[in-house]
Amino acid sequence: MGAGPTIPVEEYAERRERAASLIAEAGFDVLVGNAHESDASVVRYFSAYWPLFEMAGVAIAPTGQAALMVGMESGEFAKARSLIDNIHLMKEYRETADPVYPGIAGSSYSEVFESIGVSDVKRIGVAGYLCTNMAMYEGLTEAYPDAEIVNADSITTELRSHKSPAELACLREGFRLGELALEAMLDAVKPGMTELELAGIAISELYANGAESEAHTVYSFGGKKTSNGISRGTHRRLEKGDIVQINVGGRVDGYSPSVGRPICLGVMTDRQRKLIEFGRDMHYKTFEWVQAGVVAKEVAIKYEEYVKAQGMGRHLLYGPCTGLGLMEVEQPWMETISEYTIVPGMTFQADTFFYDDDFGLRWENGMLVTESGPAEMLNSGAHMELIEIDR
């Protein structure tokens, strides 16, 4: 836990109690939530534990009793970090180098479940479903060959969708750190600098100002790569005339927001300016349309229809926003089939991305759904002007 805002210890216990009620309502005998280093969100949400190299899991009973499951080398590390004291070392959570650990016995799922008062297991809910690997699945089926194993991500999504004051404080601080890093990047960026050199400036600023890490891999790349929905910086040198994509945020007690801006090294062409301005307009419209009481799919449909009506449909890959919290992109997504109702206290990452054949752009800011009216921006919104840096 960092020196800035943190999640109070008692909030973790409250989360497990709320989860227990949903587990019982869903008819599960136990919930298993799995995670790894790059997406530790499910485990960290309930325990404060962030795995390193190895995997991790939590098991929660309908009574609220819980256990933390870690790899064979993480016992002491987990004791120092976890707010769940009932810790089990398990081979199912070993690192991908696949050590055998001859002569060392770990716990089984049945032993873990018995430690939280669960013995007659017929229905197992699994959260962090896409973080669940074959070793975990085989361990569950070996221990409980007749049990039904069900995707239970809906439980953690429901819990995590509505942010507490402490969670909002962590997100706001992460955005503040991101904007500091953005400022440092804008001050330094120039033709001839490598994309990774620019990322290093951001990372230094984040750590120097209190981030526990970058919220995600820093986006700092230019040219045609900006037309990619996902990309990484390399040792490529930035060139005059490049559109450069910057996305950066600080991780604060696990919470991982992002600030995104497109910039031009030089003067934008008319085609670049038109698409970048259109993206910014759509970004602001997203804030207008995301309001309490609206069914999420209505926002996504309106967004898509408006883009197409403006003759810009070929530049659209996705939109308009995703859930925001322990991950910069997390459930619930906002898509044209999303049936959930937007309610106060939900947070989203407004991620406005458009692309052409040789460049793309992304505007990103955080959103908080309020009691009424358009969503509130979670960060200051610095540098929403069209940025041209001619050095």
Helix and strand arrangement:
Elements: H1 9-25, E1 30-35, H2 41-47, E2 56-60, E3 66-70, H3 75-81, E4 87-89, H4 109-115, E5 123-127, H5 134-143, E6 148-151, H6 153-160, H7 165-188, H8 195-208, E7 213-214, E8 219-222, E9 243-248, E10 250-251, E11 259-264, H9 270-289, H10 296-309, E12 321-323, E13 347-355, E14 360-368, E15 376-377, E16 387-388
Parallel strand pairs: 1-5, 3-4, 5-6, 11-16
Antiparallel strand pairs: 1-2, 2-3, 7-10, 8-9, 9-11, 12-13, 13-14, 14-15
Question: What's the gist of this structure?
Answer:
The chain is of the alpha/beta class. The protein has helices spanning 9-25, 41-47, 75-81, 109-115, 134-143, 153-160, 165-188, 195-208, 270-289, 296-309, and strands spanning 30-35, 56-60, 66-70, 87-89, 123-127, 148-151, 213-214, 219-222, 243-248, 250-251, 259-264, 321-323, 347-355, 360-368, 376-377, 387-388. Helix content is 33%, strand content 19%.
